[in-house]
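Bench notes, afternoon.
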Amino acid sequence: NSADKLKKEKSFIRRNYVIFWIALGIYVLATILSASAIFANLRLWSDETFFPAIGVILAVIGTLAVIGMQFMLKSFVDDIQAGAHNKGGSDGAMMALKGIVGACGIAAGVWLSLGGAGAVVEYVAKKETATNVDLVSVDSISNYYDQRRAEYQRAQSAYPGTKWKGNITAPALKQSAKINDILANVESERAATIAAAEAKNQAAMDEYYAKTSNDKARAKGWMGIAEALIALSIILIGIFDDGVKREAKVHLQKAEETFR
């Protein structure tokens, strides 16, 4: 047991393989989350410019390009551990290029995934507005008052026919004037009711917009965390990979010495 413990303490792989699998799992999950947001962002943008089928193809290509650029960080980490920066020449140039591409991939991922998260939240919020916000129907209110107005107008239309010796009777004129007052009150009531409904609707929409804004901020926050985890997990994977190669090299040298 003590020998196994000592062997484990000396073995880089046995000390860190759990961390490697955790980092790999985080990378896969964070990349799926990020890629979904990047794809959505590119899809919404491309749909405004191209045919839907072309938009999907461009969104897929763009998403894969960003993921590939991000993973270039692993090669950058490999080159650092291999001392490429000390060798200079093509080794140093390639290392610098990989670092630049990887950094650009992370920057593009942050920009596109945060934008995509916000765009998706806003898109869903707009699409589900009628379901999520209980708005008062202004048209229904107007139709109700139109019906009331029509009823009074039908009653009023009978008075011009109430005549005595060819003239509209005084009671008929008086009743018609009363209906004019009623109609004016109906219009005033209509305006007040519609104004109150519009104010209520605006308050509900303002509350919904505020909630949508908070949801967008949270979604962008999660995307920012995902992008940070992608960068960190790629670096950890690169470090572990280099450690595996070094340990394998040591074991190979020992094996060669044994069989000499």
